[in-house]
Amino acid sequence: AAGLTPSRGCEIDDLGKKVMRRFHPKVKLDSDYRSTSWASWRPTSNQLLLVTGSPACQTLAVGGKQNLADARTMQTRQFVSIGAIAGASIIGMEQVSELDTLDHVHGLLTDLNMDAMHLGYVMLGKSTLRHSQVGGLSSRHRTFPSWEHKDMHMVLPDPEPVVWMWQKQGSLSTVLIDSDCPDSHCIDLSQGH
User: How far apart are alpha carbons 28 and 38 in whole angstroms?
Assistant: First the structure.
């Protein structure tokens, strides 16, 4: 998928293991994140390692317990640390949208970002989508925060800002940076116009 080769997996659910073995029979599969030696996942050469996962959502989901004292909350709390121990270049998580929308209540995403910063990772951003918009059968919302290691972050160039001068009724009134032009009265200053 997208030029990536799966090499390791960690899945406790029997159906999840069957699916993984069916589509990726050569992947070494661990069963429980609590007993996995994450350091053994480290790349042996100059490879990029992408660690992705979906920690248990019962502690956050509206349809679940919404009980942060549940032991499964640790899967989410430890996710960035696990990626760092594994030597990930990029860490991507899939979680119910309440990770983001209720962060002001539980602080889990804030904690993840603090952990990431202390471990040398920079947040790339987060996307949210509805399951049914990508072919799923439910209307559940998911959020996808991701982080990249600071060494990798420093190598990639920052995109050039898009600078527009908004011309309205014959006068140049507003400079918009990294924004879409609100209408057809814009002059693109980033292209030397």
Answer: 13
Query: Cα Rg for the chain, rounded, in angstroms?
Result: 21
Q: What is the pLDDT of residues 25-49, one digit of tens each?
A: 988 888 877 777 877 877 777 677 7
Residue from 27, 108, 113, 48 nearest 72 by CA: 108
Supply the mean pLDDT for the chain.
75
- Give the Cα-Cα-Cα angle 113, 117, 118 (nearest 5 degrees): 120
Q: What is the spatial distance between Cα 58 and Cα 116, in angstroms, rounded to a whole number?
A: 23
In whole angstroms, how far apart are CA 13 and each of 59, 80, 91, 178? 17, 21, 22, 44
Farthest CA pair distance, the chain: 68
Distance from CA of residue 83 to its chain's centroid?
A: 12
pTM: 0.69
139: left (phi over 0), alpha (psi -120 to 50) or beta: alpha
